[in-house]
Design a protein that fits this description.
Largest sheet of chain A: 7 strands, mixed
Shape of chain A: globular
Radius of gyration of chain B: 14 Å
Order of helices and strands of chain A: EEEEEEEEEEE
Strand content of chain A: over 45%
Shape of chain B: globular
Largest interface: A-B, 27 and 27 residues
Structural class of chain A: mainly beta
Oligomer: heterodimer
Largest sheet of chain B: 6 strands, mixed
Helix content of chain B: under 10%
Number of strands of chain B: 12
Radius of gyration of chain A: 14 Å
Number of helices of chain A: 0
Distance between the termini of chain B: 41 Å
Strand content of chain B: over 45%
Number of strands of chain A: 11
Chain lengths: 115, 114
């Protein structure tokens, strides 16, 4: 089984709809992240969480919210979807360990189309 | 603020030829540096990473990268490419110890000619 899973893998929605993307991990990592990928722009950070009580905004948080339900679960919500939120969304996890050298591990991505 | 520049949007290489993908970074402190690969329709897979020590790092699939502090570069190399190396390659920089996410370059699309 994959260490970082995302559901759904593909989603089509309409403008104005609320949508939630979910991420689960079995790596036991405390830190989780949401990125979006747009063609020609690479990945950009939306939100990140150090633990269930610590949520931080990333570079492009406007229009998004998150919930850290447990150490293993981190959800991204679009309260009112708009077409320019059409993108590929990635969840990632990391754990600094004892020497603070952390590596991020990515899920397979959720492809979202907002009509 | 940190940033990553991948100057080449597309690179075409013949199968069996050598490859070098360029990455330049801007970061105030000593960086953590990463190369990820994204195959068509797939997620991101870590190729290699540099934290400290030997500036030439070896990764998976025969890739290596060299950290050059004086040039703020972390170029990815492979001596002989295979058709299966066709993919999107991303360079990223992250903070030491902190965890406020990675900053990615815009990616280089690698095309392999037969």
């Amino acid at each position: 089984d994959a260490d970082v899973t995302q559901t759904p893998r593909n989603r089509i929605t309409k403008t104005g709809k609320r949508i939630m993307l979910e991420c689960s991990q079995t790596k036991g990592h405390d830190r989780m992240y949401w990125y979006r990928q747009d063609p020609g722009l690479g990945l950009r950070l939306i939100y990140y969480s150090f633990d269930v009580k610590d949520i931080n905004k990333g570079e492009i948080s406007d229009g998004y919210s998150v919930s850290r339900q447990a150490q293993a679960k981190f959800s991204l919500s679009l309260e009112s979807a708009i077409p320019n939120q059409t993108a590929l969304y990635f969840c990632a996890t990391s754990d600094p360990g004892t020497n603070l050298q952390e590596t991020q591990y990515f899920g397979p991505g959720t492809r979202l189309l907002v009509l | 603020a940190q940033s990553v520049t991948q100057p080449d949007i597309h690179i075409t290489v013949s199968e069996g030829a050598s490859l070098e993908l360029r990455c330049n970074y801007s970061y105030g402190a000593t960086p953590y540096l990463f190369w990820y690969v994204q195959s068509p329709g797939q997620g991101l897979q870590l190729l290699l990473k540099y934290f400290s020590g030997d500036t030439l790092v070896q990764g998976i699939k025969g890739f290596e990268a060299e950290f050059k502090r004086s040039q703020s570069s972390f170029n990815l190399r492979k001596p002989s490419v295979h058709w299966s190396d066709a993919a999107e390659y991303f360079c990223a920089v992250g903070p030491r110890g902190g965890a406020d996410g990675l900053t990615f370059g815009k990616g280089t699309h690698l095309i392999i000619q037969p």
